[in-house]
């Protein structure tokens, strides 16, 4: 018996009957030999962790564009906080931590530079629309490894695709990530907004603070505990109506006071125009893109989709550098 087989055997006794077992996975699009050490979801986690798209998250905006300070979240630190929340919940519920972690680490791989502002621009420009969750799946299926993709299991891709509020993953592990994503960004964005002097703790409506807590630490503790308590020994991941209502209210408060029209968003119009110019430049001169992308066009992929693939994969700094290269005279550029 291999180490992997022993680990799979242990899952039958150690994990909840509602857990998604590695050996029960639907599998990969392309069959491949099993690893002798790692079950399939652990292997997926490792593939995502070692991908180029994952490393680029460290230089992609979460909320604040080019913040003045080292302690503001990036898309990478957001991803790690989602993973930490999700693993805590999964361990308490005896669900599959490797599957949870793989989904969490991969859920935002398709995010654009400049946060949701970039996503909005590409959605406007691409004929078929653009959504970061679908792009994250596209990254792992056909963009990573020079077009070969990571060949992840169906369960991981399902969790990545369906992590948004309006969607629902098929596994409980995916549903944990769906909740953990919201828990993470609501709380760390409040923390960053307070750090940036856009909000103070007392700005948060008292009806939400009374239920969830009066600090980031208290709110995280309340939300994670509530999911665990209300999901224990159930074939569902859920919260109490009172706490979930407060979380939804707090999320709407953040949309009204931070995500739309706040000081944190004052530079977004410039970022959007930058990406528009890059999009139309690559539509006119596709040959300047790396060969991986020109080969996709030659193979019959729609050019606007491929241009979005290239732009979406950029970090904030790389997009700015490309804009300067194409549109700013060399003598005007700041060294």
Summarize the structure in words:
It is a single chain. Helix content is 60%, strand content 0%. The chain is built from 16 helices and no strands. Helix 6 (115-125) packs across helix 13 and helix 13 (268-284) packs across helix 15. The radius of gyration is 21 Å and the shape is flat.
User: What does the largest sheet look like?
Assistant: none
- Please give the count of helices: 16
Helix content: 55-70%
Oligomer: single chain
Note the beta-strand portion: under 5%
Question: How far apart are the first and last residues' alpha carbons, in Å?
Answer: 60 Å
> Uncertain regions: pLDDT < 50 for 5+ in a row?
none
Q: Rounded to an integer, what's the Rg over CA atoms?
A: 21 Å
The residue-averaged pLDDT reads: 95
Judged by helices, strands and strand pairing, the structural class is mainly alpha
- Say how many strands there are: 0
Task: Summarize the model shown.
This protein is mostly helical and 335 residues long.
